[in-house]
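Illustration: S10 family peptidase.
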Amino acid sequence: MLLSLTAALFLSAAAIDDHDNGAAKGSRAKISQVAGETTRRWDLKGEDFDYDVRAGFLPLGPEGAPDAEIFHTAYLKKGADASERPITFVFNGGPGAASVYLHMGALGPKRIAFTEDGDIKAPPVELEDNPDSWLPYTDLVFIDPVGTGFSRFVGEAAEMEGGEPKGAKDYQSVSGDLRALGEFIERYLAENNRFLSPVVVAGESYGGFRAAMLAQLLPRQHDVPLSGSVLISPKFDLFGGRSDNLHPAPWLTRVPSYAASAASQGKGLADEKLTSIEAMAGILEEAEAFAVEDYTRYLVQGEMMDESEQAEILERFAEITGVSEGFAKLQRGRVSQSEYASELLRENGQLVGIYDATIAVTDPSPEQFESGYNDDPLFVLSGPYRAGLISYLSEIGFSMPDRRYDSLSGSVGSAWRYYVGSPKRPQPPAAAEALREGLTMNKHLKVWITHGAMDLQTPYFESAYVIANMGIPESVRGNVRLDTYYGGHMYYMHRQSSKEFAEDAGAFFESLGD
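Result:
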């Protein structure tokens, strides 16, 4: 399951009672009416303007008989011309993640305070003004998908299966989730008179997959013209996992991120710990060339290759990635992310993060061959992010103590149906094909893909591989941009990367409409 990598919702005690009673009768719950709203002032980076903050619910489903209520938090510049002011809809991934990570970590006007090198500070959680917010460039609407944050299913509860209404399962699927996001965006634009605004979608991790799919689905199924799609640490189409030894793409696309991770720890091709993407530019270039040339040839030819040449390539693999030559040979040059996370600093009794390999911690299970995702350092972030958001919402007058804000729902993730099409002939979703169609049918669409170089879970070179092979027409190829930053899945936790990300965002929004 991907991490990602939202806002909050509210409910009165009366609404809870209505839901409980309604469920017993097979009726629908009332949509929660509690809301928070205030006006605040932006006065950072030489700009000065007022903006409204609004937190609340929007119903999905038939009018008068909704199936779900979606919690969202919006930031809207006061007095702006809707035809010139972009509006960006933001979501994280998981599946099962609320948008709290992008909301309070990167794009909102307030953020969780981290150290300069991207580490979480000691409790209690500290909020600070975010000079790298996207608010100077665009209005922002942070969306919590059904089952995450405060959002919930409220449809017919007469038929129960496993203690849950059967209808909720529709939202725990690729198709149902995308349909819900599309419906939310269409309704929000209509209710807030924003159809003339440039519309942008931005998603992290599985949310990046969503953003790619919506490039096709928003104009096709919801009649919403799209100006931009931002994919943050995205996973386009799953190549497969550790056991896919016969397919070269997953292995070759990981090598540059392994090289960057090693350099961040002073290993591999680096003589010392490198702390900027500029400092390791030469290393990345060398790793990319090795990946697509000698290493790919090794993966394709396999045992048909001369043994001495195999040994030479595996030696080079070990040198670039920082693992031992013996380990590289033992794995036949095929090292999974979790194996790499355990192996890189094994001699120090440490493991690095799968989601951010700049972070090294004591290995809690040194006897294990590979690290588990539950041991990943970033999995401790849900608590601080949740605490920061709930505190912030209380400042704008929103309070919902009777409902738990679910930052990362394991139940949603475990129930997710990744396949599309007929149940008898399910097919894997093809986000790259959807994005290509979106670009082909809309020559004005701008696509911005961003990655952290030390993200082992969604390697940046995987996106580069997809872009190079998805058949983008020459006429719109310049509309696709790929940027890589120092850090991992949530590279914006590193101060310098956050600043660079914001500067590049300004250029992206300036390019809309060109």
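Reading the tokens back as a structure: The CA atoms of residues 236 and 472 lie 15 Å apart.
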